[in-house]
Amino acid sequence: MALTFEHWNPKTAQRFKKFIPTKGIDGFLGIRIDDVTPGQLVASFEVSDEMITMIGNMHGGCLSAFCDHVLGVVMYPVMPEGSWAATTEFKINLLKPVSGGTCTASAEIISMSRTTAVVRIDITNDDRLVAVAQGTCLIMTPKS
Amino acid sequence: MALTFEHWNPKTAQRFKKFIPTKGIDGFLGIRIDDVTPGQLVASFEVSDEMITMIGNMHGGCLSAFCDHVLGVVMYPVMPEGSWAATTEFKINLLKPVSGGTCTASAEIISMSRTTAVVRIDITNDDRLVAVAQGTCLIMTPKS
Amino acid sequence: MALTFEHWNPKTAQRFKKFIPTKGIDGFLGIRIDDVTPGQLVASFEVSDEMITMIGNMHGGCLSAFCDHVLGVVMYPVMPEGSWAATTEFKINLLKPVSGGTCTASAEIISMSRTTAVVRIDITNDDRLVAVAQGTCLIMTPKS
Amino acid sequence: MALTFEHWNPKTAQRFKKFIPTKGIDGFLGIRIDDVTPGQLVASFEVSDEMITMIGNMHGGCLSAFCDHVLGVVMYPVMPEGSWAATTEFKINLLKPVSGGTCTASAEIISMSRTTAVVRIDITNDDRLVAVAQGTCLIMTPKS
């Protein structure tokens, strides 16, 4: 049941892979886009001391912000040029605490119409599955 | 159907209200705890340029990280001393874009057992309801 | 932050209150619409032996089907005539087991645009809060 | 990252595959358990006229009740004898309308501890993906 996509913009995909965020919550986390294929995206960030709470684990908010981020980013290369994507809802299950290493998200578009898409995300931390999420992205296309 | 709580630690509540986060995702957002009563919490942060994406709106991840944060914090004053709380899952609906001003979360514990609690959160941005969330917190009590 | 609604069809509301479902999952559950006001709805059903599992509690699926049902029904009186509503996603927390009595859902539209609405639902069982849900409804208006 | 399970009861799995529900919401839907392996389950039901609403599509509540059902059932063969499982929360995205044919759910346990498990579910309708869900099951073990 792999999806096929009407649009695929490899330049957008390349631009994402080269992008180093210097501000914003993606800058705070230091999110890198590692790989982009039609409908799929792999992204990662290194857990820093800055993200660890008094309890000694990474703040869960880092993973939910990460989810929100990749949920939108996976959409751009498969939308018509000039469109933009906004997460409208998602649900996350935090499975295990994280205290260091690398967090890697694999996002996959599992359903897509002209106006909306449903995306699933797996987050691993050094090969342990630490979070899973599922959410909806709204697609806004430019008025012609 | 207001809940009553077996534990209530006003000192914890006071400490939260005075706390100014300097690191972590709560430090990045600059979350202040404005008010704490048994089972309820109001927290807020100012939207900064740092949080705005290229599209001109605040990154949605700021609101999901905010949710994750208040979901845990609302628990502390009503848990036995020495316990800790961890968000295990939540779902957020992002209702409207945010581009400035103050974001305020009202969190309420709507169900609580010895090991788990369900919390609901409303987030407003200058009097507009911009996000609603619902999630579960795990309560870990110290072994005696 | 109470919503105001552009459309309000009291006849639809009246028709719902008189409707006795004889088939479908609403017929299986025996859902009655008790009260309808703009953006709010109260509905209920009696727990029958038929719904009890081997463990002695009501099958949780009864409450999730109930949620899905009221999530759509609350929309009809506030949509343009001839529109239809479809639940696109929701999340439910099941708080307590149910083994008899009446289940009552209070649904409230908390955000609404021309194409979509977000609804929150509380389900009580004889005055105990037994489930809470939050979800999205798609609004389809007739082509003119 | 396939899970390994401490318990596996093939007799429970066999019993489920032979079970024909005559009452309850699983009886209403006519759910058959088609296949059970450690941590995975395939179940299905035939869409009947009884389940179709006035709009001509199957009531969405059938799919959410179906999810709730398989979320619990997938747990039994991998829990200690005498345990029982209860869905505590789940989230479902309804992707496409269903109007006939067979609905098939594939459920997979993606995380499991002694007290809790997270399960993902895909529902297809004659080879179209029509719903995806993700939720948590509580495991209650018999007191020894």
CATH topology of chain A: Thiol Ester Dehydrase, Chain A
List low-confidence stretches of chain A.
none
- The top-level CATH class of chain A is Alpha Beta
| Total helical segments of chain A | 3
Average predicted confidence as pLDDT of chain A: 94
Q: Biggest interface and its residues per chain? A: A-B, 33 and 33 residues
In percent, how much strand structure appears in the residues of chain A?
35-45%
Report the C-alpha radius of gyration of chain A, rounded.
Answer: 15 Å
Major beta sheet summary of chain A: 6 strands, antiparallel
What is the chain-wise order of helices and strands of chain A?
Answer: HHEEHEEEE
Which architecture of chain A does the CATH hierarchy give at level 2? Roll
Structural class of chain A: alpha+beta
Strand order of the largest sheet of chain A: 1-2-4-5-6-3
**Percent helix range of chain A:** 10-25%
User: What is the CATH homologous superfamily assignment of chain A?
Assistant: Hotdog Thioesterase
Q: State the shape of chain A.
A: globular
Oligomer: homotetramer
Supply the number of structural domains of chain A: 1
Distance between the termini of chain A: 32 Å
Number of strands of chain A: 6
Name its key features.
144 residues, alpha+beta, Thiol Ester Dehydrase, Chain A, 6-stranded antiparallel beta sheet, homotetramer
